[in-house]
């Protein structure tokens, strides 16, 4: 099986003291009929870069530990698929090395061509023949689940654990992926 994971809020946390809603609102336009993500302009990019200082982006240790155990099962391939933009490239490369994610995954893919997040991930899911994909962005997962019926999608969130549609499941921990 090919298993794909998002990065932010799956293995690396958002900064403390900043509302996740604010961060998401910065990037995402969910009110539009069509899901769209925006690339921050120059001043915003400087702010975003600061918000990615290592001290503000703590690892989600439980999830990294779970992943480390999981990859010992060599029957699967594990891929990191993150829609981080090119202006965060240096920060991203640093964080990946710091937590040794480059040594854990079979492949790492980032949205350095600054495509729309959902279109970037849709393309990677198809080309890498992903069977299972885990992310914290529900709007994005709904789009992917509709476009990839044979792939199972998991929405990692703090509250809800249930089946949302035929191929979309809400889970409160990574263990939930392997419990159904
Ligand atoms: Mg995320």
Uncertain runs are none
CATH architecture: 3-Layer(aba) Sandwich
User: Ends: how far apart?
Assistant: 15 Å
Total domain units: 1
Describe the structure.
This protein has 180 residues and is of the alpha/beta class. It has a single domain (2-178), classed as Rossmann fold (3-Layer(aba) Sandwich). The protein is 35% helix and 19% strand. The protein contains seven helices and nine strands, in the order βαββααβααβαβαβββ. The protein has helices spanning 20-27, 42-51, 61-70, 89-98, 101-104, 117-127, 138-147, and strands at residues 2-5, 28-29, 36-37, 77-82, 107-110, 132-135, 152-156, 162-165, 168-171. Helix 6 packs across helix 7. It starts with a strand and ends in a 9-residue tail after the last strand. The structure holds magnesium ion.
Lay out the secondary structure.
Blueprint (H helix, E strand, L loop, with lengths): L1 E4 L14 H8 E2 L6 E2 L4 H10 L9 H10 L6 E6 L6 H10 L2 H4 L2 E4 L6 H11 L4 E4 L2 H10 L4 E5 L5 E4 L2 E4 L9
Parallel strand pairs: 1-4, 1-6, 4-5, 6-7, 7-9
Antiparallel strand pairs: 2-3, 8-9
Helix pairs in contact: 6-7
Bound molecules: magnesium ion (MG).
The site of magnesium ion has 7 residues, from loops.
